[in-house]
Hints:
Shape: elongated
Largest sheet: 7 strands, mixed, barrel
Distance between the termini: 52 Å
Number of domains: 2
Radius of gyration: 20 Å
Helix content: under 10%
Strand content: 25-35%
Low-confidence stretches: none
Structural class: mainly beta
Amino acid sequence: MTPSLEVLATGPLVLVEDEGRPGHxxxxxxxxxxxxxxxxxxxxxxxxHDPSLASLEVLLGxxxxxxxxxxxxxxxxxxxxxxxxxxxxxxxxxVDVPDGAVLRLGTxxxxxxxxxxxxxxxxxxxxxxxxxxxxxxxxxxxxxxxGDVLPVGSPGPSFPTVDHAVQxxxxxxxxxxxxxxxxxxxxxxxxxxxxxGLLGPVFTVGGDSDRIGxxxxxxxxxRTPEHRDLELPSEGLVRGAVQVPPGGEPVVFLADHPVTGxxxxxxxxxxxSADRAAQLxxxxxxxxxx
Length: 290
């Protein structure tokens, strides 16, 4: 019997994600991939398969799946309470799920996205070389629904080499610091140490944030006088780009960002901070720093 996952419940949103589909931006295809790449890659390391294989990205818990065949899994990212047939299981650990057992995820108290990695990967049909669901372009598999049966692929010749790992804690109370470097249009908001007020103030994650990006509210970043009324031709965007629209409220782009944008990119998050940003909820406080 080919191993698989039978989906019993999904909560708000469950997507199939891998490392994305690079190399197609020139023809307008976004990169996409796991919003928290570090969580996805840690799950792959724990179960002993290549990170190019797909996992499930679970938004705010609520997932329930039944194993068809004996499976080895790992949970990473936001710390959702988890059980297998009612027995609590740990995060960032190798977990055995017997044939017919039901794995359930509750709502994480902090953070936003939990990754369920199954040894062998979620083996849905790839699109342009990736199994990632892109919420902006619509490429890739549709959101996972109750009643779906997700095939599990072959893990290859490698095996798990650890049974537990330390993972970065998801954002919780207090202010999350996101580290960045000046972007290609930093001069549009000033070349000072604070990037025209981008660095230092405490922002709040807006309610319209999603996998495309976070809108930061509560403080405005002003353009320099010589750039205030200028327009900018569309330029390429990357994950972690911090763009400042005319209203002055920054937008931090995440996994499903468009390939181009017409507002100045004044900073770019480092990869670890881009992962942290993907775990922020609306209402969370955030500060950008060098």
